[in-house]
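BUG-262 | component: ligand-complex export | severity: low

The export step for iron/sulfur cluster jobs runs without errors, but we want the raw record kept on the ticket for reference. Input record follows.
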Amino acid sequence: MQNLAVCVHTQKRLYLGLLLASIVTMVAMAASIWYLAVAPGKSWLGIIILYGLIIGVCGTILMAAFGICGMLITIYRCRSVRLLQSPMRTAVNLLFPIVLALGRMCKIDRDRIKSSFIEVNNQLVLAQHLVISPQQLLLLLPHCLQNSECPHKITVDINNCRRCGKCAVGDLLKLRDRYGLVVAMVTGGTLARKIMHQYRPRAIIAVACERDLTSGIQDANPIPVLGVTNERHNGPCFNTKIAITRVEEAIRVFLPDKMNPV
Ligand code: SF4
């Protein structure tokens, strides 16, 4: 787990910091609503609506605050707190747009924030210490891994790959054969959702760029997704690459006997 672990320790602070800032923003919003509620000249109905809003916002803040506490405890202990799983999911999904907006205001690169989000997510997934059978594990690959000149239609059936060695797909299929997990290649979020629905995995390893991984992790919720970013030496969405060792490390995280492939 060397590569995954290194990423986790270098990038997670940015996302966690922005999460805390988003809580402060929400508290400021609640205070503004409160101020409006008590301002003179409001009708009873207006006041009731405003109080309803305050309760809603405060409830959300409380839930998100528990979620952030859960994340911090989980990352610190490297062990998941079962009771705080639901608030953690709320915090991850609900506060993400606020985090992005805050990042934009602070002129922080979106990809950096997304990358940090992925590392926090990976740390939370690792802390679950989930052990499953290979058949319950789905490896989702992006279409851009396939060599652009390859004539074989592998999104229809990945077994159409001839394993010629011109891209990583052949080696990824070798991993599938060695470990016995399910592998699928997708062209976008809609197909990814369809595959998830079809196989109903207990965990997913997703290879993609920061943008697709971020939305995929949120879409798959509550299924845990371990994200592995691809390498884009030729620009986005074109002949991308992946280090097979990183994918293999991710696979071994979930399997019962990590040292002895089936
Ligand atoms: S390894 Fe498979 S997918 Fe990649 S170029 Fe060769 S045949 Fe095509």
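Assignee comment: Attached the raw record above. The longest strand covers residues 137-142.
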